Queue: 2 jobs
Job 1
Amino acid sequence: MDDRLHINDLMDFYLPLLTEKQKNVCRNYYSDDLSLAEIAELEGISRAAVSDTLHTCRQQLQYYEDTMHCLSNMKKRLKLYSQLEKHTDEQGLRLLNKCKESEG
């Protein structure tokens, strides 16, 4: 389950970098929770092709994260925001909340 959550987090950042077919397969599997057989039928490909596509997508998404660090940097910022909340006055908290909201 943790792997699924991690891939969903990566998809939030890097899905636009995948091909249309890869996007469809990833969304169907990770977001819509369809089985390999269901996706194969929708896409008109074999279950093995769906499995291969998912494997490739996982590798690509992780490569993008290893290269650009968007997800890990966001998690670091959110952790710092939480720490800052404890040491900030009212005006600072308003600004901090705006920063947190901008994280999406």
Job 2
Amino acid sequence: MKEELTDNKRNSILMPFLVGGIVGAGLTLLLAPKPGKEVREDIKRFAANTKDSVTSVIDKGKTLFDESKTVVSNAIEAGKAAYEQEKEKMRHAA
């Protein structure tokens, strides 16, 4: 479980770098010394590739969120069960 949380934390740290790289690549295309037609074609290609990348990242983020939610829910349920078990032990011991 700790390993899963470490992986999720590592992925959440990488997300801003990925977004920054995408933005940087887009700015590079806009600032490149090329004729307008070539720049427009480059932007179209970049936009298509970026859309796929962003969609993939969003899907991965949703998956990580769902997995994290499941881990937290399981931990809460385990805590409740342990609490009830110890409460019963104390009740029988008294």
